[in-house]
Design a protein that fits this description.
By secondary structure, the protein is α+β, with helices and mostly antiparallel strands. It has 9 helices and 24 strands. It has helices at 3-40, 69-72, 213-217, 296-307, 314-334, 374-379, 391-409, 417-437, 468-473; strands at 45-54, 58-68, 82-93, 96-97, 103-104, 107-113, 131-137, 143-149, 152-154, 161-165, 168-175, 178-192, 196-210, 223-237, 244-258, 263-276, 281-295, 338-348, 351-361, 381-390, 442-444, 447-455, 458-461, 464-466. It has a 22-stranded antiparallel β-sheet that branches. α4 packs antiparallel against α5 (314-334) and α7 (391-409) crosses α8. It is globular and about 85 Å long. It starts with a helix and ends with a helix.
Amino acid sequence: MSKKALLGGAVIVAAAFAVSPYFTGSALETNFKKQVAALDAQPAYAAEVVSYKKGYFTSSAVVRVTIDLASMAADNDELPETIEAELDFSAQHGLLLTQYSPGVGLAAWKLSLDGNDLQEYVEWEDGTPIYQMTGSVGLFGGADYHDWMPELTAAENADGVAFNFSGYEGHGTVEQERVVYTGGFKDMTLSVGDQARFKMSDLNLQVDAQASLASLLAGSVYGGDSSFSIKEVSFEDVEMTQPLILSNYQLTSTSTIDEEQNTASIVIKQGLESVSSESFTANDLVFNMSMDDLDISVLEAFQQFASAQDGTDPAKLLEQQSEFFIQQLPKIIDDNPSFKIDQLSASLEQGDMNADMFMQLADIEQLPDPIDDQAFWFSHVNSEANMRIEKPVALWLAQKQILMQLRTQLPPAQQDPVQMQQIAEQQAPLVISTFMQQGFLTEQEDAYVTKVTLKDGKFVLNGTELPVLQALQQQ
């Protein structure tokens, strides 16, 4: 290869490194402002670029973010109406990156919140922002970033409140049609002198979304997987003989998109290894549910509807939600959506219990008039539900229900715990016997069982058809 060719190649490379900072700086500003605008469009959030300065090799900006707490928690005088914070953004333009996330790429950046307003409440390492994110954009547009918070402590104040937080770390990647993030913290403790103590340990979050970052911020429906776990949560106060402890909580969700049908399916699984308190112990709690054939246009319309609500008037909000779903009913029924409780189970000291349920809208060609025609909807829902509960568990639940009624009916001065327990133990078998006589429960070896089916307007309870549809038609 000639020296001229080598020199020409070197000149091209040098020109690319020299010119690219200008172009990447312009593109960075455009994309940055788009992301801030997308955050501003989210419910309960307001975001604006206070300032943006673009140089040849670097850029800097200040973003003001306001969270409207009043719209999230109506009639809560203990919370401020809004929380406002200003975040500092700085970036280096590529191709040769030496700051924040060194290497070769289009840009590297840092986003931070100094948190100075919080220093009167909590303490952390001097000169460190309370939140910081650093990352870079590669040559092909993919981004990689880390975010973290430092260890926070608050010594016991005049009210006896003390706080400790181990710090937070997260890592994410952003590609054209995929966003992945993992994060978590080791432990967090909040105590009020010797009166009460709350602790949470080993929280972890994972998200793998098959969508662009812009579509996520816009509230679009997307496919992907996510998980959330907490190793242990505990709470105790001076009135408790033993703490309330929840161990190994797990939540996973998977969403799948059918682009041809424009529908989504969602599976959510929750599990809790154990929960224990002075009056209750249970293990292996499971709640798995799924929804299929959900119209994506309806889900996205609901996202926009929700973003326009202020949440300050619950009655008005409920009315608006009813109106929204009535308007969307033609689209909803067209796909015959279904809802399932795939597993609802737990193991108690007294025994096991489990249940499942399936429900689906079916064969609706035209909506009824009036829309709340109960007989119509009853005849166009297919459903099946099953429950199995071991006899000692059923007896224990009946006793708890009777005790609850006694506490409601009797004045506090007349409530004798020993006598109330005796009444509950005496009446609980009668309650179960009544349920069996009425056909709500049947015996199956060491358990009580219930099976309910509804199809084509026929309601069958434990093998006996009941004239529910006929009763509705006569109303």
